[in-house]
Amino acid sequence: MKLTTAEEAVKLINSNDHVFLQGSVSTPETLVDALVARADELRNVTIYNTFAIGRRDAPYCAPELCESFHTVSFFVANNVRKAVNTGYADCIPAFLGEIPGLIRRGIVTIDAVILNVSEPDEDGYCSFGVSSDIATSATECAKVVIAQINKSMPYTYGDSRIHVSKIDACIKVDEPLVTLPIAQPNDVEDRIGNYIAELIPDGATLQIGVGGIPNAVLSRLTNHKHLGLHTEALTDGVVPLLESGVIDNSQKKILPHKTVASLALGSQRLYDWMHYNPKLLMRDVAWTNDPFIIRQNPKVMAVNSALEVDITGQICADSIGTRIFSGVGGQHDFMYGGAMSEGGKIFIALPSQTKGISKIVNTLTPGAGVVTTRFQTQYVVTEYGVACLLGKTLAERAKEMIKIAHPDAREALEKAAYERFGHEFSRIY
User: Which residues make beta-bridge pairs with 81?
Assistant: First the structure.
């Protein structure tokens, strides 16, 4: 083990290097701070990050450091969102499952990777813990590997391992991971969760996102049987179902009897549950999010969210107009894979309005990104019900969507739909 200080470790980074920082809730903050302290010595260091929940805004995004560090995000999370939207950082639009391919093919070059890993096991392997996702491919392709060996990082199995001999410089820390409160569903989210849970059969394979609505869905699955879990993000909501045996992964075709994820974010309870858990595999996101792998599992139920949806089923999930809020992530990967799964169903779940503004709209806000096309959308769910868009015309879709819009928005949507679709809409409405 090449132990050193943080200050010495980051001296392996040079001007014009392309550096990948591990994400999820495991940003290697001690090493990041040491790198930022070298700002006066460095120029044009490109820093790549992905879905990363930070305790603070990323310090390397500070405007005064823009000549030293150039930040590019694969998924805009809270720590870089302000910088992206004020022009001091940028992002690469890409399906999350395709990003490892960009790295492995050399389209995105990685000179160095900075990791936050577990203590080594008896064979000398450290684990990436809560963040295998992009870290696996970035580490595989990097010329230099720098790591903080963190007593607080859970040890997980799967693709998320590296031998200490492959680490060029490392430090030891005991740096707690970012923890997130368990999202407690409100009344609106409870109603949405109930609608979705009623459509999930026994033996289904789940992909569940993050937040109140996913937790509302999970809370209503306690009487289901033989559920499986093949997901991108692992959260606290699934732990009770795993511990009770509701999720036993027995019906899955891909890695049966194993829970599969690519990243994790949640409470300390979740991280403790993950530690040396042989029933959990953390895999490269290129594998977990491959639609042709996802589709092989039976009855895939993919539950994702949106910022707004138009009356034809176009899904915006990454921006508010031109303002970037997040990224494509794995929504498309699981929507596509779930739709091809035998007995699969794919859901977009969202409240009908936010602060009095309808999230069901005639046309998306100018500048909004279409993350999931109308051709792929199956079920859209709000607190007012379920719109099934499968096999429906544009006018029929509009009718379905208006039924689940907030009552205050329906009259305006009806008028807009009539102006848009004319007789075809009035004929069915």
Answer: none
* Of 26-35, 52-61, 151-160, minimum mean pLDDT range: 52-61
Residues contacting residue 134 through CB under 8 Å, at least 6 positions apart:
20, 23, 50, 74, 99, 100, 103, 285
Report field, pTM of the whole predicted structure over 0.85? yes
Count the domains in the chain: 2
Q: Which residues form the domain of 209?
A: 187-428
Nearest to 126 by CA among 96, 166, 180, 178: 166
**Which are the contacts of 202, defined by CB distance < 8 A and separation ≥ 6?**
224, 225, 226, 227
Compute the distance between CA of residue 217 and CA of residue 231 in angstroms, rounded to an integer: 15
Cβ-proximal residues to 170 (8 Å cutoff; 6+ apart), any chain: 1, 2, 3, 4, 9, 146, 147, 148, 149, 164
> What is the per-residue pLDDT for 23?
85
Give the domain CATH number at 136: 3.40.1080.10
Distance CA 54, CA 61 (A): 13
Q: Considering 64, 67, 175, 232, which one is annotated as catalytic? A: 232
Mean pLDDT, rounded, for 337-346: 97
Asked whether residue 165 is domain-assigned, the answer is yes
Query: Is residue 276 a part of any domain in this protein?
Result: yes
**Do residues 234 and 191 both lie within one domain?**
yes
Q: Amino acid identity, residue 405?
A: A
Q: 347-386 b/e with 16+ CB inside 10 Å = b?
A: bbbbbbbeeeebbbbbebeeebbebbebebbbbbbbbbeb
Q: 232 catalytic, yes or no? A: yes
Domain match, 123 and 193 both: no
Domain C-terminal end among 117, 145, 173: 173
Q: What's the average model confidence in pLDDT over 129-140?
A: 95
With respect to residue 335, please indicate whether it lies within any of the assigned structural domains.
yes
Asked whether residue 179 is domain-assigned, the answer is no
Helix (H, G, I), strand (E, B) or coil at 243: helix
